[in-house]
């Protein structure tokens, strides 16, 4: 269950850091939206990263992880903060020739692993990390993310534990009500 007080604080931090913008945005998919989210903008502030990591640690503590793992690059900062809060080690997987691999660390054989990401949309990256580590002998016991944008439709075996489950409206350009109102369209990243 999301904690509404904690979620409200996170939402404020997302706005203040520029991680959550409201307006009229052109997304990489070509669709338009009233909201744009870039979690890296939040995590660039260590105090916000520590807040999110501590809160997320509280949510995934129930899995009793021995180790936290994340997909590079998006999961590294938040994964490390969660691991810090739980005082367990942190490792990350990365893509090499398209495949997710554990390159820099020994396999956490026999250890309970929780996979942490900043934003789960499809769940593919976290799922690949979990699968890689499980294939190497670890026990993949859970998944967590700051934001869950999957709408319950991720490819993960279970919904991630998250601090904020959110789905923003998306429109095809020809159906966009903000275009109809004549609001200028912004391509995120172009003015930040
Ligand atoms: Zn539009």
Determine and state the CATH class.
Answer: Alpha Beta
The 3D shape can be described as: globular
Structural class: alpha/beta
Number of E-state strands: 9
Count up the domains. Answer: 1
Give the strand line-up of the largest sheet.
5-4-3-6-7-8
Ions, cofactors and other bound molecules: zinc ion
The second-level CATH architecture is 3-Layer(aba) Sandwich
What are the low-pLDDT stretches, counting only 5+ consecutive residues below 50? Answer: none
Could you tell me the mean pLDDT? 95
Largest sheet: 6 strands, mixed
Strand content: 25-35%
Give the SSE string: HEEHHEHEEEHEEEH
Count the DSSP helices: 6
Beginning-to-end CA distance, first to last residue: 34 Å
Share in helix: 25-40%
CATH topology: Rossmann fold
Characterize the structure shown.
This protein is α/β, with parallel strands linked by helices and 192 residues long. The protein has a single domain (4-180), classed as Rossmann fold, CATH 3.40.50.2020. Helix content is 31%, strand content 28%. The chain has helices at residues 4-16, 39-43, 46-60, 76-86, 124-135, 177-180; strands at 20-26, 32-37, 67-71, 90-96, 99-101, 112-120, 139-148, 161-165, 170-171. A 6-stranded mixed β-sheet has the order 5-4-3-6-7-8. The longest helix is centred in the first third of the chain and has 15 residues, at 46-60. It binds zinc ion (ZN). Zinc ion binds at residues 24, 32, 173, 176, 178-179, 185.
């Amino acid at each position: 269950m999301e904690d509404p007080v904690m979620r409200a604080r996170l939402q404020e931090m997302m706005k203040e850091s520029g991680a959550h913008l409201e307006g009229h945005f052109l997304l990489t998919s070509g669709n338009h939206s009233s909201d744009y989210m870039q979690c890296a903008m939040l995590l660039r502030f260590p105090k916000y990263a520590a807040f999110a990591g501590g809160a997320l640690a509280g949510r995934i503590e129930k899995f009793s992880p021995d180790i936290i793992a994340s997909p590079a690059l998006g999961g590294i900062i938040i994964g490390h903060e969660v691991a810090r809060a739980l005082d367990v080690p942190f490792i990350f997987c990365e893509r090499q020739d398209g495949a997710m691999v554990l390159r820099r660390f020994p396999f956490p054989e026999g250890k309970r692993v929780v996979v942490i990401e900043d934003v789960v949309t499809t769940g593919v990256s976290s799922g690949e990390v979990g699968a890689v580590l499980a294939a190497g002998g670890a026990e993949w016991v859970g998944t967590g993310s700051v934001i869950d944008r999957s709408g319950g439709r991720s490819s993960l075996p279970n919904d991630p534990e998250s601090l904020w489950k959110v789905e923003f409206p998306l429109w095809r350009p020809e159906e966009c009500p903000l275009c109809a109102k004549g609001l200028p369209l912004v391509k995120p990243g172009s003015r930040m």
